[in-house]
Amino acid sequence: MVLILSGIAIPQTLATIDASRTIGAARYLTSRLALTRSLAVQRTAAVAIRFETDSRGVFFSTYRDGNHNGVRMRDIDLGIDRQIEQAVRLFEQFPGVDFGLVLDDASQDPIQIGNTSLLTFTPVGTATSGSLYVRGRDGSQYAVRVLGATGRTRLQRYDARQRKWTDEF
After folding, report:
1. Options 3.55.40.10, 3.30.1360.130, 3.40.50.300, 3.30.300.180; which CATH number does 2-167 get?
2. What whole-number distance in Å separates Cα of residue 169 and Cα of residue 26?
3. Which of 22, 34, 73, 88 fits 136 for a cystine, CB–CB 3.0-4.6 Å?
């Protein structure tokens, strides 16, 4: 009887853990963006999160404008715009979760911020518009959307049954 109950309970518990990690990662990313916006306003300088990809996947780090012309890739390479926070990989903090977007059986770019890899927040609170997609091991998907005019973020969950994004509170 104990084995049967364990056989039923353990998979359900693991699914709950996966779902919790995925929403946790999406909320973590949302709060990191809000913190970056606050840093830009506080320091009266542009602050950007740079998204990069290597053989292990996507990672991101934070940079501060060093010459008052915005955070730019060239200035980062020259050391003018300096890194102020270490690089982070979602899957290292939230096992089974990473950047990812799969809709209608087709993979799409999970970092959608135009033709740049920098999500920049300005001293007046505005930002680069864009969407960051997080996907869990269980197939759940979340979008962290940045509204450029206000620099605020919105967290949405993808409902596969209805095939639409809904606000997550």
Report:
1. 3.55.40.10
2. 12
3. 22
